[in-house]
Amino acid sequence: MHDTVKVLIYILIAIVVTNGIRVLPITLIRKPIKNKFIQSFLYYVPYVTLAVMTFPAIMEATQSPIAGLVALLLGIVAAYFGLGLFPVSIICCVAVFIIELFV
Amino acid sequence: MSNNKDNGAFLKGMRDGLPIGLGYFAVSFSLGIIAKKGGLTPVMGFFSSLFVRASAGEYAIYTLIAALGTYWEAVVISLIANARYLLMNAALSQKFNPKTGIIKRLLVGVCCTDEIFGISIAWPGYLKPGYTFGATAVAGPMWALGTALGIVAGGALPTRAVSALSVALYGMFLAIIVPPSKKDKAVAVAVIASFTLSYIFSIAPVVKEISSGTRTIILTIIIAAVAAVIKPHTTPENGGGADA
User: Fold this and answer.
1) Chain A interface, mutation test: which of B105, B167, B191, most A Cβ atoms within 10 Å?
2) What does the DSSP assignment read for B76-135?
3) Alpha carbon of B231 to those of A44, A97, B199, B235, B236: distances in Å?
4) How is chain B split into domains, by residue range?
5) What pLDDT, in 10s, does the model give residues B165-177?
6) Looking at beta carbons, which residues of chain A come within 8 Å of B232?
7) Mean pLDDT for chain B?
8) Best exposed site among A12, B16, B128, B219 by fewest CB in 10 Å?
9) How many other C-beta atoms can be found within 10 angstroms of the C-beta atom of residue A65?
10) Using only C-alpha atoms, what is the Rg of chain A?
């Protein structure tokens, strides 16, 4: 069937391009970077990226934006007091579930 | 190939991969509903998700298939939606022990998703590749399974449940960015700036038209660069990244 072949080609493109992007920097950068600016830049990258992806996206993911906002604040507090990945996630999910019962 | 030292890391990775997998499940389930519109069968959805493992990238590609876009558009949209992995893996390249072989490095690179990257960069000192592999071994199949089930079951899950589950991933992000913010004030300021600018970019005229994937890239480069200039951070001898 022609359509199935077409869909498979799209999927193949996504697989090749996505994983190509992933391995490229690792192939190019094999030694510790000495440059102070690049070292500092890469130190901040993970936190900045994750923060940018979290807000305001968390308010758009839920049906009520307020539920997402409360989940964000509770998640920050829980993580601040040292709770791990799973407990923080559960707290956020439960918060949204409860709040959306009322709004 | 794995030695004894790596086995512990692999198991720890599997443990940390479980909550990620649970969070994935909700997201990839909703992704499956979109994939179905593109004409993907559950088997196709499973393997496509297993090998791509990129929420924004897959969302873009399934939408494109449904809209009958061209192959070139598929290439460009995959590049844009996933360009943040260039930055993430550049950061990850500094987490390796100089003795870590190229094959293991490349495999870690392939495993990189937002969440797997997040926990890998948080590993204290040099990254043990086994940790990343363990997390992917658990979370990857759950991501794939969620997509397949989404294609099969469509809208069977109540909206309320989907809504609650959809914040699981963000909860994980918070658990990754908050502890280092507590330790390093510069990180805290960078995180607050990221929240603020990201919000402004989502509502301000003109810039709000930028897709969320591109927004992530632009803001990451700007904010991380400014932070690096104002408050340079050089890592001591054992590993780069988050173990400040």
Assistant:
1) B167
2) HHHHHHHTHHHHHHHHHTTSB-TTS-HHHHHHHHHH--HHHHHHHHTSSSSB-HHHHHHH
3) 10, 40, 24, 13, 16
4) 4-167
5) 778 778 888 988 9
6) 36-37, 39-40
7) 87
8) A12
9) 14
10) 20
